Amino acid sequence: MSLLCFDLGEGRSKDAIENLKSLFHKVQLVPLEKTHARRTPWHKTLREWVSPSPELFGRISSSVNMRKAIQSLLRITEFDLVHIACTDMISYFLDVKHVPVVFDSIDDPSLNLFRSMRQNERLLQKVKLLKDWLVIRKFEKKYFSKFSEIVVTSPLDAEIIRSFCPRSNVTVIPNGVDAQYFRPPSCDPMEPRLIFSGVMDYSQNILAMTFFCKSIFPLIRMKIPEAQLLIVGRNPVREILDLEKQIPGIEVTGTVEDIRPYLARSQVYVCPLKSGAGIKNKILEAWAAGLPIVATSLSCVGIEVSPGEDILIADDINGFVKAVVRLLQDESLRKKLAEKGRKKVVEKYDWESKAEMLEKIYVRAMKNFNIDVDN
Length: 375
What we know:
- By secondary structure, the protein is α/β, with parallel strands linked by helices.
- It has two domains: 32-176 and 352-374, Rossmann fold (3-Layer(aba) Sandwich), CATH 3.40.50; 193-349, Rossmann fold.
- Helices cover 46% and strands 14% of the residues.
- The chain contains 13 helices and twelve strands.
- It has helices at 14-23, 41-50, 64-76, 109-119, 123-143, 155-164, 203-223, 238-246, 260-264, 281-288, 317-329, 331-348, 351-374, and strands spanning 2-7, 26-31, 82-85, 101-104, 149-152, 170-172, 193-197, 228-232, 250-254, 268-271, 293-295, 312-313.
- The strands form three sheets. The chain has a six-stranded parallel β-sheet with strand order 9-8-7-10-11-12, sandwiched between helices.
- Helix 8 (238-246) links the parallel strand 8 (228-232) and strand 9 (250-254).
- Helix 7 (203-223) crosses helix 11 (317-329) and helix 10 (281-288) crosses helix 12.
- The two termini are 28 Å apart.
């Protein structure tokens, strides 16, 4: 097996790369160019409508370095199967005809855009999001049918793809987590600290944390003045960094080598996502780490949750404040939710079972591809 991925430079864990090298015969990191070539607005608009890969995917989908690396690897190695992760990577494999291709949708961008469009109250922003959604949906409709198999993390994602690509082989494999790597702390932290984790230049995380910090967290501190919030994740944008300066009690860590010590220092995990697609691994990691969770309904799409038993769900400001304050003040409730959340991860979201499901998809893709070639 060979792994080809972008080298994003700062923040990449050396330990993670070494671990990957123990799993793959070859791990090749491809440097991502810092900028696009300069384009006029007209050229950009034209490219969005006719290019195989929409401009709004950004640098990831149009890297000359990655295209050359893939072409070189395919030229010198005879693969049995290609696995693509994320829509951004599709354009590099449109000409691959001699080997079955499995596409891992992960976090469907068209569904993200559609949800953002519905929630946005500004007319001009709605129009822009609608245009972007039409571009990506056109792209998906044209190319998804070319894959031998499509893997998604939630039934909703599968339903949407089948609606515009009914002949596709779509399989739901819920995300998993390493329950041995993430483990509960030996004792409950003393300080009333909340935590949120994620890549902090990702639009859905930015929206969630901006909303939480400005509309919810100050109300929590009115009831529990010593409450603190950790925002953990790489590449925090200026909007996130400014929250630390503007609102008392907030700490933005930026890149960390290991998130587990930060989870161990926290009493409650908050996940106030208002948009996004697919299963949120942050929920599974928090459960595995023995943290009680307060989350929006959207944050739990595709995850089997039991509100009040292993998680607290809140979809409005007052409900979220009430749920967080309740958990911070009730140690027994924190313990109950944490234990049941951990139990569910171990029983239903173990990585080993997910790997077995993926292996079956690989076998089916190769078998069906060979039948088609013979015919």
